[in-house]
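User: I'm curious whether this sequence folds into something compact or stays loose and floppy. Could you predict its structure so I can see for myself?
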Amino acid sequence: MERFWDWRPNSVPAAAAAVLDAVAALEPVELYTANAMVLGEVDPDGRRLSDILNSNSQLAIRNARSISVINGVEGTEGQGWTSVSTEDILFAMPPEHVSPRQLRIHRRQHRVRIQTGPYVVDGTAHVLPGIRLDPYVLRSRMRFLALTDARASSTTDPAWERAARVVLVNVRPVADLTEVMTIS
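Assistant: Here's the prediction. I'll summarize afterward.
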């Protein structure tokens, strides 16, 4: 039983501990839209960001901060929770994760180059055997395609480039998808 007064050093009331645990469970995320880069934190609730994006029309983000990619337009800084439509997200860079073995499925690997909005994303796409790397086919099966060992660059700013272990690309606004090489 919890006592009202707890004189032990470094003790944290149960309610405060629950809040601290919830905040600690948040994970950083980078989202890219046609107009901005959005930084913030998401509550994965034990799921991968790819699963969240593929199953929801909105992504809840805490303390979102946007950096405009349009010259002369200011970014924004928010506090608390807000949401972004998954339709507006061109691609996302989730935190590093090692997925549980039961979530891993053998998939064919293809080195691809994807043009989406003002960005080009190069990486390794993992698709089930028999699935063609065609934007129309992919749209009917998923919303976000995971690319590993990825590199994103801007078509409008040659100096801008980002690399990430995983990039989740929204397949709906893809302008061009080119298979560079089949790996397996």
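Summary: The first helix runs from residue 14 to 24. Residues 1-8, 16-22 have pLDDT under 50 and may be disordered.
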